[in-house]
TrEMBL record:
It comes from the Bacteria. The lineage of its organism: Bacteria, Bacillati, Actinomycetota, Actinomycetes, Micrococcales. It holds the Pfam family 5_3_exonuc. Signal peptide: none annotated. This is 5'-3' exonuclease. SMART domains: 53EXOc, HhH2. It comes from Brevibacterium daeguense. Keywords: DNA-binding, Exonuclease, Hydrolase, Nuclease. 5'-3' exonuclease acting preferentially on double-stranded DNA. GO terms for molecular function: exonuclease activity. Residues 2-275 form the 5'-3' exonuclease domain.
Length: 305
């Protein structure tokens, strides 16, 4: 049996490292390498913790894909910093990504990127297309929808102090009051996601959304109940009115939050766990002053082979 496959939501990791480590960490040319160093150290620690060299680094080929903004033009619109380039990424982070990609690929970690899609879509396709256990590393709550009874998936979320929280299917009920991932996505559609510019139903937060879905089962059934004047499971007149008024927005949220599962990811899965090109890693690391972190990653990968 194959050991678990680790699917990295790499943007989560490089943004976290970029903000956690000082920009005074640079290479000899003065280019910041704080995010690179942080990601290499984080992946090394993860590999050691889970005991597998089978790692895939999912990337955003497009952080605001056209198929999502066509449904909800407001999707992440408030995060655009450069209207002409259409990006949210600080320049001193953007310049680090080519190096990060080169180092990860040279270490035997395939860069999983599909044109026109986000890292979430790549990860969802990987979990849908492998029978192996998958450990998804991400702080993105949308990926909790991947926790399903028919798949062996865990979500590892970063916490303060270098700690990690691992969530599996049973924890969804305890933490969010829903039984499985598809119901969590419906909860999220009701709640909305301000970070992504998606408005939910006024007056309905996570707990109320979970109670309503627990009572009525699905969004479709919930809206039918609201339209029929039902009163159980916390469905007051005020909430019925709010739900029906926001129905179109909730349905758009649900479509936008649904990740693609049919992308061509077989090659990424097959390449996970490849042998590192240690000479290439060493050369890149020396050129960019990240030798310790690069060696940390190589040693961690070799130790679990």
């Amino acid at each position: 049996m194959n050991r678990p496959l680790v699917a990295l939501d790499t943007p989560t990791l490089y943004y976290r490292s970029y903000h956690a480590l000082p920009d005074s960490i640079t290479n000899s040319a003065g280019m910041p390498v704080n995010a690179v160093r942080g990601v290499l150290d984080t992946v090394a620690a993860l590999v050691t913790a889970v005991g597998t060299p089978r790692v895939v680094a999912a990337m955003d080929a497009d952080w605001r894909p056209a198929f999502r903004t066509a449904v909800a033009p407001e999707y992440k619109a408030q995060r655009v910093k450069d209207e002409q380039a259409g990006t949210e990424m600080p320049e001193d982070l953007a310049v680090q990504l080519p190096l990060l990609n080169e180092l990860l690929a040279a270490a035997g970690i395939p860069i999983a990127e599909v044109p026109g899609t986000e890292a979430d879509d790549v990860i969802a396709s990987i979990t849908a297309q492998t029978s192996d256990s998958v450990i998804v590393v991400s702080s993105d709550r949308d990926l909790l929808a991947l926790l399903r009874p028919d798949r062996d998936v865990a979500i590892m979320r970063p916490r303060k102090g270098g700690e990690w929280e691992t969530l599996r299917l049973p924890e969804l009920q305890e933490l969010y009051g829903v039984a499985e991932g598809s119901q969590y996505r419906q909860l999220a559609a009701l709640r909305g996601d301000p970070a992504d510019g998606l408005a939910g139903v006024p007056g309905i937060g996570e707990k109320t959304a979970a109670k309503l879905l627990g009572g009525y089962g699905t969004l479709e059934d919930l809206f039918a109940a609201a339209g029929a004047g039902a009163e159980g499971h916390g469905l007051s007149e005020k909430r019925r009115t709010a739900l029906l008024h926001a129905r179109d927005a909730v349905e758009r949220n649900h479509r936008v939050m649904t990740c693609l599962e049919d992308l061509e990811v077989a090659d990424f899965i097959a390449a996970a766990g490849s042998q590192a090109d240690t000479a290439q890693v060493a050369a890149l690391a020396a050129e960019h002053s990240v030798e310790r972190s690069a060696q940390h990653l190589l040693s961690a990968l070799e130790a679990v082979r």
